[in-house]
Inverse folding.
């Protein structure tokens, strides 16, 4: 990097608060090889004592620019989150510019202009929403852009890269650019591409405008990179297992990822909570409105999976039942309200998964899907089916179309727009939804849209796919227990039978009723308990000690489903119909 400078102390920042990551997650531990020179002379530097992302460089007299160089150490294991996670394999990579640059103090990220260059392994292709100034061989020069738009425009590259236009001959153009670890991973059945084309059409109908000049779904398929989605104005950086397009079970599990990230172009990038719209990457973000930023995106992304046929209505309901049941068994609701799950994100998002139900994870995603469904059902009731959340989206996220822009909002703006669609006590509704302690999940939206959450002994295709992908046994709604096929206990739910008996994550289940544990032995024992008054006897190993714990449970296996409530109209199916 060549950075304009004047003699004295030059303060430079490595991006810390990364948009869409909701925390101080810039991967500073992976910055190495930092070196500053001016006129061939090495300059001394020191890290700020109060902020590890800040560097002070001593600039000598007579110098008007500093050369800075650094390495970003690409993580070696597939763990990690967002842009700090593993990002490259032998055959593909995703370049996130925030990991590769410094920026000077003073001014905003909109004010700073960057001219980026990229050299790829020979034979690799690439895709990005950045515009290209020139290209010679494997070296690409991008046109100058603001720092904001550079950080907002990752590049996907690889040996096997496929570009699929999703709205041929229309503007603004939308395409999917998939880089995978094999050519075979790109050979999805024809209907998959049709479903993603539907997604673009259905999002257009939902919002009635676009806020991008072009849009790229940058989709990385590898078992060796971190799996997540990260939203941008004109693209998204989404990563799934290698088989996520070609394998039906993996495709089901990934079926909501791209629709969620695409919705963010409207909800999160264009419309953004005022206290998340920071002027640079150093100023902390406040996350109290993530129940709109992420919660509404979850709701809209999910209904778009059904409207675009990425999921059948039945698959959509299986996902909804899965989230609702999980939230309905959230023991941590007793001490922590939904608002706090959003407020606490910057410090809490890397919490371990053990004791997850008692900690409460990032519930503002799924629980606010239930709440926004409830809002949609209330709007439809109040207006006798004349208005819906589609009308809210047209007002809040809709025309006029244009390039990337940010229009910030506050709690009051959300309430006022809802009142514009259908007058109601929306302030009271949201205050209650965000601050209550249950008991149980907010199921009012499911019930008001004509469905009921029930449990039976049949595992849905979704539960089977989750169990297969994680190598786990899901006994969450019977005894409150997840464990691996080898008996290692992943988690328990406080207040449910397994936890009450003294079982917790980190232990190993060795035997069930005197017989060596297998998933089948456990399932058989759960079913057998329905007709027996004897408790389940679980032989458990805990940090090298063995003990037999008695679980007094007789309810059989339990898996969640939605079933119709014939006393009410089927509003949910109406919501899921393509526009
Ligand atoms: Zn999101």
């Amino acid at each position: 990097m060549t950075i304009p400078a004047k003699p004295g102390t030059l303060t430079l920042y490595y991006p810390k608060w990364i948009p869409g990551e909701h925390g101080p997650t810039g991967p500073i531990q992976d910055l190495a090889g930092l070196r500053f020179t001016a006129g061939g002379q090495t300059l001394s530097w020191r890290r700020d004592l109060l902020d590890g992302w800040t560097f002070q460089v001593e600039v000598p007299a007579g110098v008007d620019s500093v050369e800075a160089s650094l390495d970003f150490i690409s993580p070696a294991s597939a763990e990690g989150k967002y842009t700090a996670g593993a990002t490259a394999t032998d055959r593909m990579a995703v370049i996130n510019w925030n990991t590769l640059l410094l920026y000077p103090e003073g001014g905003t990220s909109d004010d700073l202009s960057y001219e980026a260059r990229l050299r790829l392994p020979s034979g690799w292709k690439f895709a990005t929403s950045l515009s290209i100034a020139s290209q010679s061989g494997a070296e690409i020069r991008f046109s100058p852009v603001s720092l904001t738009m550079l950080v907002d425009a990752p590049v996907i590259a690889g040996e096997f890269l496929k570009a699929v236009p999703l709205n041929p001959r229309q503007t603004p153009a939308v395409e999917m650019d998939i880089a995978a670890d094999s050519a075979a991973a790109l050979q999805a059945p024809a209907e998959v591409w049709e479903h993603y084309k539907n997604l673009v059409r259905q999002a257009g109908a939902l919002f009635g405008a676009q806020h991008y000049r072009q849009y790229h779904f940058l989709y990385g398929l590898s078992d060796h990179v971190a799996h997540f989605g990260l939203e941008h104005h004109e693209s998204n950086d989404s990563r799934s297992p290698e088989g996520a397009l070609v394998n039906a079970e993996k495709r089901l599990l990934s079926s909501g990822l791209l629709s969620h990230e695409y919705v963010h172009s409207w909800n999160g990038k264009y419309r953004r909570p005022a206290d998340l719209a920071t002027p640079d990457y150093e100023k902390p973000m406040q996350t109290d409105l993530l129940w709109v930023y992420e919660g509404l995106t979850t709701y809209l992304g999910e209904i778009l999976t059904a409207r675009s046929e990425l999921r059948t209505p039945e698959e959509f309901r299986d996902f909804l039942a899965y989230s609702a049941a999980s939230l309905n068994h959230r023991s941590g609701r007793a001490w922590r309200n939904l608002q706090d799950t959003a407020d606490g994100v910057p410090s809490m998002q890397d919490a371990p998964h053990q004791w997850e139900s008692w900690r409460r994870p990032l519930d503002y995603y799924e629980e606010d899907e239930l709440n926004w469904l409830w809002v949609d059902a209330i709007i439809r009731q109040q207006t006798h089916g004349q208005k819906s959340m589609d009308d809210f989206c047209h007002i809040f996220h809709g025309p006029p179309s244009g390039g990337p822009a940010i229009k910030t909002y506050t709690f009051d703006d959300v309430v006022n727009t809802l009142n514009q669609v259908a007058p109601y006590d929306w302030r009271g509704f949201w205050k209650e939804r965000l601050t209550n302690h249950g008991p149980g999940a907010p199921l009012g939206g499911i019930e008001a849209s004509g469905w009921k959450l029930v449990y039976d002994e049949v595992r849905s295709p979704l539960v089977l796919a989750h169990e297969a992908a994680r190598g786990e046994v899901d006994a969450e709604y019977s005894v409150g227990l997840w464990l691996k096929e080898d008996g290692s206990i992943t988690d328990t739910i406080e207040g449910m039978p397994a936890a009450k008996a003294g079982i917790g994550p980190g232990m190993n289940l060795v035997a069930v009723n005197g017989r060596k544990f297998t998933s089948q032995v456990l399932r058989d024992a759960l079913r057998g308990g329905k007709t027996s008054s004897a408790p389940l006897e679980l032989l458990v190993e805990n940090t090298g000690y063995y003990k037999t714990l008695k679980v007094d449970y007789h309810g059989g296996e339990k898996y969640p489903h939605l079933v119709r409530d014939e006393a009410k109209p089927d509003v949910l199916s109406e919501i899921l119909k393509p526009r």
